[in-house]
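User: If you would, consider this record:
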Amino acid sequence: MALPAWPEPEPLTVASAPLPEYGGGSLADLLPTLAAGMGVPGTSAAIAELTPADRNCVFLIDGLGWEQLRAHPYEAPYLNGLLASSRGGTGRPLTTGFPATTATSLASVGTGLPPGAHGLPGYTVRNPATGALMNQLRWQPYSDPKAWQPHPTIFQLAERAGVRAAQVSAPAFANTPLTKVALSGGTFLGRLTGEERMDLAAEQLAAADRSLVYTYYSEVDGAGHRHGVDSDTWRGQLMHVDRLVQRLAEQLPPRAALYVTADHGMIDVPFDDEHRIDFDADWELRAGVALLGGEGRARHVYAVPGAAGDVLACWREVIGEQFWVASRDEAIEAGWFGPHVEDRVYDRLGDVIAAARDDVLVIASEREPKESAMVGNHGSMTPAEQLVPLLEVRS
C-alpha cells in the first residue's frame, strides 16, 4: 500500500501579510492628531482615541516595541504601569508602518505621512536618478533632502500656526539630512545626556501656551542590535529609559500631555544557516539581481532589466514559506506602504519586496558585514516589529 504524498508547502500569499493601521492607528497619524488638537491648519485628528491638549510632548524611544516592553515589567515598572493608558486609554498599541525601521518611521512621525508618500521606504533603497543604493538613515551617497522629501513636516506647520515647536535630541543629529526631511521646524536643541534632554523638553513644553516638543533616545535600539533584546545590556538600557520617562513625566507643566512611543520593535535571530540565509552565498537568490536593498527582514530586490518576473518566482520558491514575497505592484496594491505611493517614490521600491514572517533574515555577509552580524533585527510586519506603545501621561 502506497503512503499518501504530503502536499508541498505553499508560499505565503501577499494578502496574508498583516498591514499597518494606516489612517487611524499608525505612527504617521500621531503628530497630525496632536497638531489638529492645537488648531494647526492642514492637520486632522486621525487617532480618534486621543484627547486634545495645549502642550504636547512626544518621547520616541528607538527600538522599544510593544511586545518587548510588556515582557519586561521588572525592568520597566513605570512604563508598564502606563500600559493601560496606551492609545488614549484603550490599552492598544500603534503600528509603525512598513518597513519597521528607523529612517522610515521617523519620516512617518515627522511628516505625518505613510512611507509611500514621504518617500523613505526602507533602510537602503535605489535612487532612480543614479541607479545606486542610498542609505536613508546615514544619507549616503548624499542626495538633496528637499528633492528627496518635499512635504512639510508637522513641526513646520505648527510653527507657522504660532505653536512653539522644538526637538530635543543628541547634538549629532542637529544638521543631518534625515533630521531636515523628517523633523525640521521650530528649534533644535542638542543635549548629550538623557537626563538633560528630559529637563529641557519639560522647559520647552512650558515655554508657551501651545507647544509641540519631540525628544528621542537611541540606546535601547543600539543595545538590541549589538547584544539582543534578551541581553543584560538591553535590559539595563530599558531600566535607564524607564527612569528617564518618569523624570520627564514628573516635570510636565499644566495642560500638557506626554506620549511615549517607538519607531519599531525587535527580535533576536539565531546565528545559523537555517535562520540567516546568506544572499552572497546563494546563487539562486542572486540570479538576475542587480542590487539588494532594504535590510535582513525587509528586502528591496532590484532586478536586471527584463528579469523581474524570474527574480520574483525564484525568491518565492526559495524563501516564500518564510517571507511574504511580492512584486512592487502587488505590494503597492496590498497597501504595504500606505494607501498611495507617489510617482517619485515608485522606482525607489524594489522590483521584488520580501518581508519576513518567521525568525529569519536574508543577510549579505560580504556586502553588509556589519548589518549581517547584528543580534537584534527588525523591519517586517510581525507584531514583535510592528507594534509600538503610545503611553500617555497628562498633567
The chain is about 35% helix and 20% strand.
